[in-house]
TrEMBL record:
Domain of life: Bacteria
Protein keywords: Cell membrane, Membrane, Transmembrane, Transmembrane helix
Entry keyword annotation includes Transmembrane: yes
Protein name as it appears in the record: TVP38/TMEM64 family membrane protein
UniProt membrane topology term: Multi-pass membrane protein
Record has Transmembrane as a keyword: yes
Annotated transmembrane regions: 12-28, 49-80, 86-104, 132-154, 174-192
Any Gene Ontology CC annotation: plasma membrane
Residue ranges annotated for the VTT domain, each copy included: 67-175
Length: 195
């Protein structure tokens, strides 16, 4: 049953990726993606529900890492603006990370291996033995380019209390989200200068 679940999640990941690509092509042909104002209006058409829908998407992409989180993070900033985008991104990612932490604490390594290759997991699990692991964990949570979801799952195998984990998330994740946004903004400007 476990192997079946693992395969099903892998297939689900591919299905979500293909469905996302088809949906993006459809939105582009429809003109929604080729016109940013139209795209923004399409996202915020649900008025007060839009932020909650976005936060829910962020939670889901953390707990079930089959949706590329970087895409949703940038969409949050582009559509809602800097401060609301920062808040909605951070809230979704923090809640998702806490849920992921709790799930791995309950179900252990078998849960991690549903989403991660065993050799990748072993590589990060080996870091748990290092005396400075907590600093490594904090660094990964601040860094906008680290495999944050994987590090959250591995950290769940330690004796770190969920309260301490949550406090670390509260101050590291907003920094990571800002860093990720800066990389895209500065990278975009650099690409525009080149081309």
């Amino acid at each position: 049953m476990y192997e079946f679940t693992k395969k099903a999640i892998q297939w689900l990941g591919w299905i979500v990726l293909i469905a996302s690509a088809i949906f993006a092509i459809w939105l582009f042909r429809d003109g929604t993606l080729s016109d940013f104002d139209r795209f923004k209006n399409w996202v915020i058409q649900y008025k007060i529900l839009s932020p909650f829908i976005f936060i829910l998407i962020q939670i889901i992409q953390v707990v079930f890492p089959i949706i590329p989180g970087g895409v949703t993070t940038i969409v949050g900033f582009a559509v809602f603006g800097f401060w609301p985008g920062l808040i909605y991104n951070s809230v979704g990612i923090i809640i998702g990370s806490i849920i992921l932490f709790a799930l791995v604490q309950k179900y252990g390594r078998r849960f991690i291996l549903l989403f991660v290759k065993e050799e990748t997991f072993r590589k990060y699990e080996a870091k748990l033995e290092s005396p400075g692991y907590q600093y490594f964990f904090i660094f990964c949570m601040v860094s906008p380019v680290s495999p944050a979801d994987l590090v959250v799952m591995v950290t769940s195998l330690t004796n770190m209390p969920i309260k301490k984990f949550s406090l670390i998330m509260l101050w590291t994740k907003p920094l990571s989200v800002i860093g990720y946004n800066l990389i895209w903004v500065l990278g975009g400007k650099w690409l525009l200068q080149i081309f």
